[in-house]
Predict the 3D structure of the following.
Amino acid sequence: WPKWGGQGAHPETYVEQLAAEPPIFVLRGLLSSQEAEQIMVDYDVALMPDFDRHSNQTSSAVFQRCAKKFPVERCSTVQDKGDACDFHEDPTHFQSPAMADIHERVADVVGVPEDHVEAAWLFHWGRRSSQTVHLDNYHHFTHPKRIASVLIRLRPDPVGIAFPLAKTYQAAHPLASDVTFIGQLGADANALPFRGMGFGRHFAKGPVHEAYLDICSSAPIKLGQGDALLYYHLDHEGLVDIRALHASCPTEDSPLPKLFLAKFVRAGSLLIAHNSLKTPHPTQELQHWISKRTDGLDASVVVFAPGGELDVIRPTSCP
């Protein structure tokens, strides 16, 4: 379990467990307010929507400011998400001292080597952004698997986050008690061809989506500046835990943006597997996943479907 706060620590730093299935914790005061504000300044988080809006103007001051902090290819790409901006840190391009401290701290709290922790993702989600319920092991071939996520609030969260299938100690949704339903979802999530974001596309409607909306309207998990949410993704057999399905609550009606960073923790070294701490491309992970298998493949063919998602053609589908 996470090592944070406790005897001799600052009284505002402590661990609070919210659920056992999946394990969900609040890490109070993982960052001080000063550290959170420093990250905002270091990475221009408040300016991130402007990075998108000026991405085709490579001579603009905004573009040049983006390119100092993030790879040029990201600064020249427009995301079709309104005010929902996601930027991935590249430590080889730029990493502030404050971010380096956070990387080391997350590894220490979770209890893994630093090369098991991905480079940070920074998020600025405005009023028009929304999110689909999903798993953080975002496709079937995630390798090494993500075992945990740490979401750190850079400003107080105006809307919160919901885990519709989690057996939280307080305000668990009735759907979390439907063992048959959850068992079937878990089997589907761990089967080819999809899990994670691909599997999550099925939850734009239906009972899981309705449970998500119910929690967002009644009892979402909201954290203050510098607080972090730590949750685990795998069950005791090392399979993806379907109860870890989650999503940020809608921000359409929020007067304030949602500003946070995410650190994803892997079950193995990213440097050994991929020679980088950045989130690997799915095809890169697939290649490593295949190379590590000792039981052979099932002769299925992995392809890219329209939209860039992984799909599988079984041998029986081929003429």
The two ends are 51 Å apart (CA to CA).
